[in-house]
UniProtKB/TrEMBL annotation:
CDD domains from the UniProt entry: M48A_Zmpste24p_like (cd07343)
Domain Peptidase M48: 204-409
Cofactor(s) the protein needs: Zn(2+)
Membrane topology: Multi-pass membrane protein
InterPro entries per UniProt: CAXX_Prtase_1, Peptidase_M48, Peptidase_M48_N
Segments traversing the membrane: 6-25, 59-79, 99-125, 146-165, 171-191, 284-306, 326-344
Protein name per UniProt: Peptidase M48
A Gene Ontology biological process term: CAAX-box protein processing
Binding site for Zn(2+): H274, H278, E352
Native source organism of the sequence: Prosthecochloris marina
Active site: E275, D356 (proton donor)
CAAX prenyl protease 1 N-terminal domain ranges (all copies): 25-201
Gene3D superfamilies to which the protein is assigned, alphabetical: Metalloproteases ('zincins'), catalytic domain
Length: 416
């Protein structure tokens, strides 16, 4: 083993151990007593169900992560990366086609390893707790569509990256950065109208009290709406959500049908006010900017480690290649990625507080956001008392109780 082997192996095992500690602490933090704030939406039976769901889903995630890590380590130290490379090279294609096949086969194998866990999660775990609405046909259809999209979208991106790094010299990382960033912008623009409808049906919200209330609020905050849509989320799960997607003329606000079914008009407008708050506070732009900067750093560092003999030796590789460099560097970069994810999660939680504040500040019935959050927690069997360390590592949203307490403090001291 060389220094790269030690770094990558240490990162894989260290990250797993840190997450294991966080999961154990999180399960221990689950309180037996229902918090007073939620006693109007939970009964003790429902609360115990949420606790059981937390334990079951946590143990399942740990088993899945441990198994996938074990498979990776066995494949690595058994020389699997080099064996596959030799096999694909033996087909005598160009380096571009060889690289696409190499990475494509690895992704296919990864998908096969994770498939049984995906089946169990959907048809056993989610079914047991009343969430699953997915039929076997829908499940298979989703998987096939995902593979097809991966081929149609991922193949040209991968081919472009390989071509740039093989043919563009010292500035290859710049061209790759620009090209992938541009592709990302295009994807953001077309996804709401082209890609998302492949998986869910988007139905324009019908005229009525809800639409009038939403349009009235949007006009009051000078937010032009080109589309308010209802998603058939109940096709796959009873869980509820809402989101904002796209930009420019393609921006959409989407409401799950399960959300509309369980919430009042004022609660729904408060939820949408929160989503509009993200747009108004430039959170979407900030996230895209940070993603693009991170991408540039990744490509620059990749150019430094490209075809590094020591890195290839760490994976028992006989031949150097750009395509394997992409894969091995992604593993080498994982400790940096782990730290960045913690930082970005923290920023995301801050943005959620800001969006809550915007909703309360700009909507006359903003206080109903509290009721909406409580109902969402009940519907989704959310963990009401997560451990702070688990939140620090994993939560993109603040714990719901913290959000409610912050909203109540703002309402009590409001001057708006």
């Amino acid at each position: 083993m060389n220094i790269f082997s030690i770094i990558i192996l240490g990162t894989l095992l260290g990250t797993f151990f840190i997450k294991l500690v966080a999961d154990i602490l999180n399960m221990k933090a689950a309180g037996a007593v229902l918090p007073v704030e939620f006693q109007d939406v939970y009964d003790q039976e429902a609360y115990e169900k949420s606790q059981n769901y937390l334990r079951h889903s946590t143990v399942f995630s740990l088993v899945a992560a441990a198994f996938e890590l074990l498979i990776l380590l066995v494949f690595w130290f058994a020389g699997g990366f080099n064996f596959l490379d030799s096999m694909v090279r033996g087909l005598d294609f160009s380096s571009l086609v060889t690289g696409i096949l190499y990475i494509g086969i690895l992704l296919f194998l990864q998908g096969l390893v994770s498939l049984p866990f995906s089946i169990y999660q959907t048809f056993v775990l989610e079914e047991k707790y009343g969430f699953n609405k997915t039929t076997p046909l829908t499940f298979v259809s989703d998987k096939l569509k995902g593979v097809l999209l991966g081929l149609l979208l991922g193949t040209p991106v991968l081919a472009g990256l390989l071509w740039f790094f093989e043919n563009s010299g010292s500035l290859a990382w710049v061209w790759a950065w620009v090209a992938v960033a541009f592709f990302g912008f295009v994807l953001q623009y077309v996804a709401p109208t082209v890609i998302m409808p492949l998986f869910n049906k988007f139905t324009p919200l019908e005229d009525g009290e809800l639409k009038s209330a939403i349009m009235g609020y949007a006009k009051s905050v000078d937010f032009p709406l080109s589309g308010i849509f209802v998603i058939d989320g109940s096709k796959r799960s009873s869980k509820a959500n809402a989101f904002f997607t796209g930009f420019g003329k393609q921006k959409r606000i989407a409401l799950f049908d399960t959300l509309i079914e369980n919430h009042t008009v004022t609660e729904l407008v408060a939820v949408l006010a929160h989503e509009i708050g993200h747009y108004k506070k430039k959170h979407i732009v900030i996230a895209m900017f940070l993603s693009i900067i991170n991408m540039g750093i990744v490509f620059f560092l990749l150019s430094i480690f490209l075809n590094n003999r020591d890195l290839f030796d760490a994976f028992y590789m006989e031949n150097l290649s750009v395509y394997a460099s992409l894969l091995f560097f992604s593993l080498l970069y994982s400790p940096v990625e782990f730290v960045l994810s913690v930082v970005l999660q923290s920023l995301s939680r801050r943005h959620e507080f800001q969006a809550d504040h915007y909703a309360v500040e700009t909507y006359s019935e903003g206080s109903t956001l509290v009721e909406a959050l409580k109902k969402l927690s009940r519907t989704n069997l959310s963990n009401l008392t997560p451990h702070p360390f688990y939140v620090f590592l994993n939560y993109s949203h603040p714990p719901v109780l913290q959000r409610i307490e912050r909203i109540r403090r703002e309402l009590s001291t409001a001057t708006f």
